[in-house]
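[step 3/7] inverse_fold.run input=structure_tokens len=253
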């Protein structure tokens, strides 16, 4: 006699229910996708971005508590933003900044300084401002990359930043404890920023990665967002770098 098996869905409480998540660089790409996933897990969102209009579109989609349009690499504007935040904040993710390419010896000092400001200096300033805003056990998550782990002509700044960020993350994890500090290192991610950088070469790059990556597909913002939200919810994670590049670092460029 066949026995009927009833399978019932076990409902779970959203993992970020009632928590406040700040996404610096949350108007598009990885930042926006992380905001979407955090919202689905019950989080309250505060978003920042450089441009007002796309930021408002993003905020409307995820029902953000508030937004602030400013250049996060400006220390005075960043300080002003943090001073206006409610306390405590549960999680902060920083996705602002873009890669810089070119031979190191050809970069003028202003360009080189700007490239470092968009990553290393920005992360230090965020950590300094966030120190008294994030609750104990909350998280500060930075975005880095894996592509610069192999030195090469034309990627000197990217390579320097790639090497520096894990050490910066580990040290901040000790200094800010019990706040948790982690780094997400991505390879190529199919975002609007990638499209703007590659232009007409975008589809060729997608095809190359689909053929070469061990996962046989292109990494999407949702892949990175899933990892970011996991880091927020797993309270044993701090001081570490988590790769999400589909194995890109293991193949020829």
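[step 3/7] decode complete -> sequence:
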């Amino acid at each position: 006699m066949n026995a009927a098996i009833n399978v019932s869905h076990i409902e779970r409480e959203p993992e970020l229910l009632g928590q406040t998540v700040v996404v610096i660089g949350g108007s598009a790409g990885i930042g926006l996708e992380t905001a979407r996933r955090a919202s689905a897990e019950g989080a309250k969102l505060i978003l920042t971005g450089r441009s007002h209009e796309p930021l408002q579109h993003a905020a409307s989609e995820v029902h953000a508590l508030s937004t602030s349009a400013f250049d996060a690499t400006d220390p005075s504007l960043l300080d002003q933003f943090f001073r206006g935040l409610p306390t405590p904040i549960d999680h902060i993710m920083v996705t602002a900044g873009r890669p810089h390419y070119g031979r190191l010896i050809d970069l003028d000092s202003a360009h080189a300084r700007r490239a470092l400001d968009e990553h290393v200096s920005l992360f230090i300033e965020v950590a300094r401002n966030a120190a008294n805003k994030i609750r104990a056990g909350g998280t500060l998550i930075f975005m880095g990359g894996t592509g610069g782990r192999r030195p090469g002509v034309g990627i000197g700044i990217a390579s320097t930043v790639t090497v520096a960020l894990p050490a910066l993350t580990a040290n901040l994890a000790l200094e800010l404890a019990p706040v948790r500090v982690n780094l997400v290192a991505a390879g190529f991610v199919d975002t609007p920023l990638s499209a703007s950088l590659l232009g007409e070469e975008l589809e060729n790059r997608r095809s190359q990665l689909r053929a070469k990556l061990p996962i046989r597909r292109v990494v999407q913002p949702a892949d990175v967002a899933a990892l970011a939200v996991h880091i927020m919810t797993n309270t044993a994670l701090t001081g570490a770098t988590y790769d999400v590049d589909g194995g890109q670092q293991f193949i020829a460029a």
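[step 4/7] annotate
The mean pLDDT is 90.
The domain at 20-189+221-243 is CATH 3.40.50.720 (Rossmann fold).
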